[in-house]
Amino acid sequence: MERFYWGAATSSHQIEGGNDNDWTAWEKTHAKRLAQSARRTTWPEFILKNYPSPLEPENYISGKACDHYRRFREDFDIAKSLGHNAHRFSLEWSRIEPEEGKFNEQEIEHYREVIRALRERNLEPFVTLWHWTVPRWFAERGGWLCSDAGRLFARFAARMAHEFGRDVRWWLTMNELETFARHGYFLGDRPPGRTNPFAAYRALKALVGAHRAAYDAMKEVSPSLAVGFTESVVDFEPYGRSPHNLLAMKAIRWWRNDPFFGALVRSADFIGLQHYFHSRIRLNPFLSAWGIQYNENKEVSDVGWEIHPESIYRVLKELARYGKPIVVTENGLADARDVHRTRYINDHVGWMARAKREGVDVRGYFYWSLLDNFEWQSGFWPRFGLVKIDYRTLQRTVRPSAWQYKKLIERGM
Ligand code: BGC
After folding, report:
1. Nearest ligand 1 atom, CA 303
2. Helix 341-357 crosses helix 400-411 at what angle (to 10 degrees)?
3. How far is the CA of 234 from the centre of ligand 1 (A)?
4. Which one of 307, 341, 368, 385 is separated from 152 by 20 to 30 angstroms, measured CA to CA?
5. CA-to-CA distance for 234 and 295, rounded, in angstroms?
6. What atom of ligand 1 comes closest to residue 384's alpha carbon?
7. Ligand 1 proximity of 230 Cβ (cutoff 6 Å)
8. Would you write out the chain's pLDDT as a tens digit for each of its 413 residues?
């Protein structure tokens, strides 16, 4: 029987530091505005006392981030000491192909070192090819809406399979395609900052096409690779029994969890499940910005997301219908004081174990995230890490919950 994979996940732009991609450009344009609009919120003291605070523009600029690009060995030592046997990270496309069609050998060598460092510590690498950032040349050509986006991404994917296919078995082409399309093309709060639902739909369609092209290209290089993708799957339910809530729930669930999912799965050897959300859908325009989500559970993370562990069981059962292995590639919470994290992980893993006992083919669990990191348009203040980062000194401190997670790993499933 294959071993169960336990670890934590990260992504290049959120931790490496020193990147130069479409996000870097976007951050510089929006940092001041984001800091100013944060002044309209009342923040708890435990958030404001950390550096950088949401009220400061530097919070919104990734800059040197955790300097993981240079400190990856130290970080993998920590993961090892925490009992992990696997690690998920992403390759930074903009480093590897800084100019169209020109691959940077030094950067390829860097990631070869990263993979070697994982192997030396018996950490099984799970590699994501695209975690939301793209090279500037790709953005300038129109990003995912440019007519040959699929071909360009597949070329990068094939090259990576060729370079690292002997050392990496588990691959994820793309991270949360729907989340990316919704924020970047409909909500407009992430690059490329568009607010057009039709563009969001077209972007999602293009991303699915790019995933499928990358899948085929990688399998051509090496049929033995396990190639998947990740999606955020939300546990939706209607609020009460009224038919309009049920209808609204069905429509929202369709958009968030279903369109194109089948097409993605058809070109995948496994599913990467990212799970963060539970939503009760209630059509009431006065309840929230969207007027549709209503959670009674008052236990929330620092970013206000409801803590509802049973949801992971429900979405795992839902995904079992595809008949493919599932890896939980992300699940976690922002909790600067580390007051909820131990129970959060225990409870989610408990519900995941129950789904597994009932026959769902779950192969691994990756907590998001190994380190505190750059949480996209929210910047540095949300603290998702098993390991705390002091962004002034870059000192790493393991949080108590990380040791509890280690105990859980040792007990096994
Ligand atoms: C993304 C991560 C992000 C996390 C928490 C996931 O959807 O893949 O990059 O940091 O959610 O928001």
Report:
1. 12
2. 20
3. 13
4. 368
5. 13
6. 5
7. no
8. 679 999 999 999 999 999 999 999 999 999 999 999 999 999 999 999 999 999 999 999 999 999 999 999 999 999 999 999 999 999 999 999 999 999 999 999 999 999 999 999 999 999 999 999 999 999 999 999 999 999 999 999 999 999 999 999 999 999 999 999 999 999 999 999 999 999 999 999 999 999 999 999 999 999 999 999 999 999 998 888 888 888 888 888 887 777 789 999 999 999 999 999 998 888 765 555 455 666 776 799 999 999 999 999 999 999 999 999 999 999 999 999 999 999 999 999 999 999 999 999 999 999 999 999 999 999 999 999 999 999 999 999 999 999 999 999 999 97
CA of 176 from ligand 1 middle (Å) equals: 9
232 lines ligand 1 (CB under 6 A): yes
| Ligand 1 pocket member 329 (CB < 6 A) | no
Contact 205, 199 (CB under 8 A): no
Q: Domain residue spans in the chain?
A: 5-411
Separation of CA 281 and ligand 1 centre (Å): 22
| Pocket lining: 368 vs ligand 1, CB cutoff 6 Å | yes
CATH code assigned to 5-411: 3.20.20.80
Distances (CA, A) of 59 to 54, 67, 377, 391: 6, 15, 9, 10
DSSP state string for 176-212: -HHHHHIIIIII-SSTT----HHHHHHHHHHHHHHHH
Structure tokens at 237: 């339910």
pTM: 0.97
Distance 191 CA to ligand 1 centre (A): 15
Q: Are strands 5-9 and 86-90 parallel, antiparallel or unpaired?
A: parallel
Q: How far is the CA of 147 from the centre of ligand 1 (A)?
A: 27
Find the 241 Cα to ligand 1 centroid distance in Å: 32
Check if 331 has its Cβ closer than 6 Å to any atom of ligand 1.
no
